[in-house]
Amino acid sequence: MKSRPLIIGHRGASAVAPENTTAAFREALAVGVDGIEFDVRLTRDGVPVVIHDSTLRRTGGLSHRVADLAWAEISKIDVGSWFAKTFANETVPSLAELFTLFQSNNSTLYLEMKCDSAAGQRPLAEACVMAIEEHSLRERVVVECFQLPALKILKEIDPDIKTVALFEPSFTNPSVLSDQRIINQATDVSAAALALHHRLARESLVQKAKAVGLHVAVWTVDDPAWIERARTIGIDALITNNPETMIRARR
To answer: What residues are annotated to the active site?
Structure first.
């Protein structure tokens, strides 16, 4: 049985390699992560690719939107140099390439769907489901999203894929984030788990979630003190930029 809490590499091992690149995912595997978290968007020609932002500005130094580029174009862009010159050959992986990399291990894969509009939710969900099924990874992939209607669409396409409802603090309407409201929103879309921003990871919410059978992951935490907190209040997984440090602290 795996140790608790599970340690999940946020965009790979993004403290030591450029986020959402093959280098970051390989590094995460090398230190023995239980899983990785990564972001997926669609290119102009409908290819699911692994990148967080809607544009290439931050990681590629270009103002182009991911949705305006074809796969053949985006696959050539350097998204490693911004992190360190030694990573100059890193490019945006396709979801298929990531799945191929993880075919030979048993890591859990937290796939976050990044939807910029309601209209984009179904095409992205369909592309993700197709890739998951083509690589026979239904048992290992959990799909998460802040836009909960997108998770409902995904479950309509394939009811057997596990989904995770993502929540972050809202300063405009804090009442939306009451324990019961969060749990109700997650169960309304048949999510199997919650992924909570660390400021929402209060004991009362974790306990209520566990009571109705929801797993709980917390993001993004790099302080090893979270290991003991997770064990004390029942958090199942910690999503971290620095999995090596957290794994060492868990022993």
So the answer is: 10, 52
